[in-house]
């Protein structure tokens, strides 16, 4: 059994981790930390876990967490990088669901997150945890940087085109929408029901924190710098991401559908839908899967890719568990074969 600890277990990502790990056949939950809720039974805060998780929240302690085989950080940006070095030194593997280890350049980190990086030496060894791209490196990793939700949907959508060198990498467009849970479990006016309900808006048009992460990942996939216009939107729903992606072909391609199907033929958690499909966010709710459809309107030189994920599962906790499975030599789909919830 893999002994697991979670730092920061009171947010939406934390409870999603708990839901998945409590059902994982090779996991023993050892510790769930929260400074603000220490002493509270986990099931008191999250009643869906009654009878499945009997732990109480505890203060984060390296001594306690060092008894684990792997520790997940589901904390605000800037927390993990201050604690990870000590855990790694004690032989504990780490999967960080925040952004602390996603950007390879510490200058970029400081620019987008407003603080200096606390452990640049360890930053260099962190593996970006997009399994469809970095599976072999993840197998050997001590530290995995779990991708963001928007970056997961966007990179998986563009990957086949960039890998094959078929599109103009300087003119990519990602028009993406997310449910309100993507903002986290905290009290902020813009996520209140009366503010977000019955409304729809773009945000972060001048620059969103996920932009450098997406560009870094796409550059790695295609082997060249990319030009990307990324516009996120807030949808009046709880969970889900829909990314509509645009790219301009630089050479004629006879069968884009076959390209996508072949690229993802052996991927358990990427589902290429039949030609002409329009994936819905509800088709991935609660499931660790990205569903993709590729279109070429009127046979022109513009490709439109539709990519949907559950931002809390394939976009966060589910992908983190997928990475854990890879790191510990388990079948990648262990504990993750949940069917999406309908309606």
TrEMBL record:
Record key words, sorted: Amino-acid biosynthesis, Arginine biosynthesis, Cytoplasm, NADP, Oxidoreductase
Active-site residues per Swiss-Prot or TrEMBL entry: 149
Record carries keyword Signal: no
Top-rank taxon, per record: Bacteria
Gene name for this UniProt entry: argC
Catalytic activity: N-acetyl-L-glutamate 5-semialdehyde + phosphate + NADP(+) = N-acetyl-L-glutamyl 5-phosphate + NADPH + H(+)
Gene3D superfamilies: Dihydrodipicolinate Reductase, domain 2, NAD(P)-binding Rossmann-like Domain
Name of the protein in question: N-acetyl-gamma-glutamyl-phosphate reductase
Free-text function comment from the UniProt entry: Catalyzes the NADPH-dependent reduction of N-acetyl-5-glutamyl phosphate to yield N-acetyl-L-glutamate 5-semialdehyde.
InterPro entries, per the entry: AGPR, AGPR_AS, AGPR_dimerisation_dom, AGPR_type-1, NAD(P)-bd_dom_sf, Semialdehyde_DH_NAD-bd
Domain spans labelled Semialdehyde dehydrogenase NAD-binding: 3-141
A GO term, aspect molecular function: NAD binding
SUPFAM superfamilies associated with the record: Glyceraldehyde-3-phosphate dehydrogenase-like, C-terminal domain, NAD(P)-binding Rossmann-fold domains
